[in-house]
Structure formats: structure tokens, C-alpha cells
Request: fold
Amino acid sequence: MTPLWQSTCADCVIGVTKDIELNTGRFITVEGIEGVGKSTNIEHLSRIIESRGFKVLKTREPGGTPMAERIRALLVEHGEEELPDIAELLLMFAARALHVNNVIRPALAAGTWVVCDRFTDASRAYQGGGRGIPMNNINQLADWVHGNLQPDLTILLDAPVDTGLDRAGRRGEPDRIEVERREFFSRVRETYLQLAGSEPERFIVVDATQDLESVRRAVERIALEIE
Ligand code: ATM
Reply:
């Protein structure tokens, strides 16, 4: 059987996107620094969308396919050698290329809504803002890997770094990225907020310092309103 993504990509390459868009699911990404409650709210968001009668695929980055999950392990483990920033960025995009082609595009083409825990905005925030890699290099990779696929909606769960790190710190041993210093996560958060400010039509920023029930209700309203 021909995988769906082949025909989808072929159609996109020749620029016939309008009709396809009418038949595809929505691509929703959820972003934020550690400890802002992404996992819980992704569960809630997905349940509400399902209750509206849509099929939902929950997935995550880096990861989401068997090989991309193996790349994720390389990225988060404390490995036996130093991982240069450029290698970190390229591995993120290698995992993303697998995920976009093998999972996200086929799901959207089949009418499934995709709810993804992090996507390219995380590369902009962590590798761009956090590590200092120029944004135009990241955007070039983004164009190359998924030029004609952008999230329809990005929910940014935002909280001050101390709040996030404090909550995340209670979850056990930090991985290779989580051990970064507070200033690193401040730059990540600032970059997320700048991205949200520069694309207000795509981003919704949710104040994740509110009590859990208020955040949950905010996410619920969003899930009920997405067209
Ligand atoms: P989660 O633990 O939130 O699933 O993500 C793993 C790490 O990958 C996370 N680290 N911290 N803190 C953020 C990081 N990450 C990037 O640095 N760039 C990316 O493009 C993505 C998708 C994730």
C-alpha cells in the first residue's frame, strides 16, 4: 500500500494545498519551559477535542517515531562525549524529519488532529534563545524539513523560570538539557514570549502560574473554540 504521506507531499510540492487543507486535521503544538504542566494539559486538550468527535493523535518531540525516540535518547542522556550545539540542533531536526514525514503528515492527511508536545518553536527557544544559534539558521532548517507544514495553533504555557524549575525539580534526576543554568531557561522563556508576540495569530499564551483548575479551564476553552 502506498503510504499516505507520499501523495500528500507530492501534492504540496506542486502547491495544491487548498483542497488538501480542507480535508486535513489540525496541527496543534504545546510549548513552554519545564514544569509548566504541558503533559497534564495536553491530556486534557486531547480529551476535549475527542469529545467534539475528532480523532486525535498525541505525540511529542524530540521523538514520536521509533527512530526519532532513539535520537531523543541520544539528546537527553548524559552521553560519553560532549554534544556540540550544532549537533544538538541537527539531531532535533533529524528526529523532526522522521516525525513529520512518517507520523504527522499521514495523520493530518487522514483527518486526524495532531497534538504535539513541542515542535520547531522549541528549537527556536532552546537552540536559538538558549544556546545562541542564529535564528536564520534554524528557520532555514525549518523551511527545509517542513516548509509547507506549520502548526495551526501553538499554545504557550508560560510561567517564570523559578516556578517552572521548582516544579520540574521535584520530578527526579535532571537530564542533559535540564541541568542547564537558570539563565539558560530565562533566555528560553524570553524567546518563547518573543515568538508568541511576533505571531499572535498562531500563538495563544496561557498563564501557567494560575492554579491548576484555572489553567485547565483556559485550555478547555481553547479546545472548544478551535475551528
Ligand atoms: P521534554 O522533556 O519536555 O519532552 O523535552 C525534552 C527536552 O528537549 C527539553 N529539555 N528541557 N528542559 C527541551 C528540549 N528540546 C530542544 O531543546 N529543542 C527542540 O527542538 C525540542 C523539540 C526539544
Notes: Confidence is low (pLDDT under 50) at residues 1-20. The chain has one domain: 27-225.
